[in-house]
Amino acid sequence: MEKDILILLEEISNHIRLNPAEIDLVKGAFHLQKLKKKEFLIKEGEIIKGLVFVTQGILRSFALGENGMEHVIQFAPSRWWIVDMFSLVKQKPSRLSIEALENSQILQISKPDLDKLYRDIPKLERFFRILAENSLINYQSRLINNLSLTALKRYEHFCEQYPELIQCLAQKYIASYIGVSPEFFSKMMNSIAPKR
Amino acid sequence: MEKDILILLEEISNHIRLNPAEIDLVKGAFHLQKLKKKEFLIKEGEIIKGLVFVTQGILRSFALGENGMEHVIQFAPSRWWIVDMFSLVKQKPSRLSIEALENSQILQISKPDLDKLYRDIPKLERFFRILAENSLINYQSRLINNLSLTALKRYEHFCEQYPELIQCLAQKYIASYIGVSPEFFSKMMNSIAPKR
DNA sequence: CGTCTATTTGAATGTACTCAAAAGCGGTGG
DNA sequence: CCACCGCTTTTGAGTACATTCAAATAGACG
């Protein structure tokens, strides 16, 4: 739908200015796709097809541990990007799976189309550089938190950083994101807000 | 020294092609700096001056936990970049400190000069986009490892990934990087290779 | 209403931490 | 060249944070 593309263009225009011809190129390169709740966009081991921008709903990416445990790497609500950068850049099998947590709509651009877009609109290098830098900042912050904070403090950080996500996520996903078992998370929650 | 700049240009030329005029611009934007062992490039709370490329020696970046514990975020041997991206991009106080572990030489470019360079040589957006993407991949990989692997496996991964670093780093730094206390790390090492 | 999944609760366990102290190692100055 | 000092590594005992397993309870969805 046209509305989804507008959301994307709005995001891009926060960082760079595109002229009408360039806007058309961008429009043509991204493809709308609908995902149903619990549908997978990609599964671990596959090679990522392209870069994904979420316009509606929520996706999550996660890695499987040896014991089969899922570790949530990222939540992507509307207006967020999601991808396994490793798989996209190196074109090797993904360590991550990506799944819709709600019925969602995404705009996807394939790697060849993205590479072409970089050639046609060099300004986009700037946009995606900034995007990668910001993502980098988030990962670094999360790494520091994981190394230095207790589970409770990591949860509190999460609440501050993503207040709107808390209400719409099953708590096992939040537990996984902050890096604890669902059982422990449950106990932790009850210990700070004893059952009412 | 001229040699240091050549190392930098070599790195850049792995990804983009610069003409002689552009090379001169790059040369002019980076400044050589020497650091003595244990000298700090920046301390937590300061605002990062610029982006750093190491040409000789080794630096490390680390964050301080609440208890005063140091958490190594990155090692940067020769040919690596090091920075607190958060502080550089947002121009806010750094969460990280950066210290030389050996006598080292670095090339530094200030944020204003970097911004100017982006304007003068748009191709550099591409180079630093790729750089940020690769760094992102590393952080993500490390995050997954921290979430899903035991300390011993994280150490084994570290050995595979940075074999050349192991011999020249004090083990307390390796312990900190993989996220365990030096005491525990020592016990772990003796348990896999009992004293000879 | 029944089934499936998510959450809670409890007990036993494990991985890694803290604190304290001893031993090892390396560099520096006499 | 040796002795000393400071820092790193080792060792041990006690502890904490979080996990695992099992089972009960609660919710959500068709």
Which helices and strands occur, and which strands form pairs?
2 copies of one chain form a homodimer.
Chain A (H helix, E strand, L loop, with lengths): L1 H12 L6 H10 L1 E5 L4 E3 L7 E7 L1 E7 L5 E8 L3 E2 L2 H6 L5 E5 L3 E7 H10 L2 H26 L2 H11 L1 H4 L4 H8 L3 H11 L4
Antiparallel strand pairs in A: 1-8, 2-7, 3-6, 3-8, 4-5, 4-7
Chain B binds a DNA duplex (30 and 30 nucleotides) through α9.
Write structural notes for this entry.
Two copies of one chain form a homodimer. Helices cover 50% and strands 22% of the residues of chain A. Chain A has a domain at 2-123: Jelly Rolls, CATH 2.60.120. Chain A is built from nine helices and eight strands. Chain A is elongated and about 60 Å long. Chain A has helices spanning 2-13, 20-29, 85-90, 111-120, 123-148, 151-161, 163-166, 171-178, 182-192; strands at 31-35, 40-42, 50-56, 58-64, 70-77, 81-82, 96-100, 104-110. In chain A, strands 1-8-3-6 form a four-stranded antiparallel β-sheet. Chain A has a four-stranded antiparallel β-sheet with strand order 2-7-4-5. The mean pLDDT of chain A is 95. Chain A is α+β, with helices and mostly antiparallel strands and 196 residues long. The A-B interface holds A 63, 65-66, 69, 71, 73, 84-86, 89-90, 95, 118, 122-123, 125-126, 128-129, 132-137, 139-144, 146-149, 179 and B 63, 65-66, 69, 71, 73, 84-86, 89-90, 95, 118, 122-123, 125-126, 128-129, 132-137, 139-144, 146-149, 179. The structure holds a DNA duplex (30 and 30 nucleotides).
